[in-house]
Amino acid sequence: MTAISPYLLVVALGWIVAQGLKYVFAVIKTRRIGNFRQFYTSGNMPSSHSACVVGLATVVGIIDGLDSALFGIAFLFAMVVMYDAVMVRRSSGEQGVAIQELIKLGKAKIVVPRAAKGHTPLEVLAGAVLGVLLGIFVVTLS
């Protein structure tokens, strides 16, 4: 029987741990345990996208080498995802909030759309640090 791939394991752990931490931070902040949306919603601390892609790049770097083509691809992938989280998704989320406010002001009979959140640079950095730690942990277990 083959053990699970460390490449896949770190991605799964990155997502589960980051989303779990979002829930914990929301409970601490609101003092309510009913924030179950944090287990699957986007935005907030830490970035699960960043944790996954940096964890993957870390595992690739350790196993395949920092000079491998695969690491170069994983590194580029991580940079694009983190840039998108801060610059593109965050901007579109702010625009979504503005649109919600305009709809409410106009008192129109329009269903207010959900505004997807991006991330602050700190949330992305926290996700990236989590990814590195999980990558090292997974490779150590392998």
Question: In short, what is this structure?
Answer:
The protein is an all-alpha fold and 142 residues long.
Could you list some keywords that capture this structure?
single chain; elongated; 4 helices; 142 residues; mainly alpha
Task: Describe what this molecule looks like in 3D.
- The radius of gyration is 18 Å and the shape is elongated.
- It has one domain.
- The two termini are 14 Å apart.
- With 142 residues, it is an all-alpha fold.
Number of strands: 0
- Supply the helix-strand structural class: mainly alpha
Quaternary state reads single chain
Overall tally of domains? 1
Order of helices and strands: HHHH
What percentage of residues falls in helices of 4 or more residues? over 70%
What is the alpha-carbon Rg in Å? Answer: 18 Å
Total of DSSP H or I helical runs spanning 4+ residues: 4
Poorly predicted residue ranges: none
> How much is the average pLDDT?
86
Q: Report the principal-axis shape.
A: elongated
Distance between the termini: 14 Å
- Main sheet? none
How much beta, percentage-wise?
A: under 5%
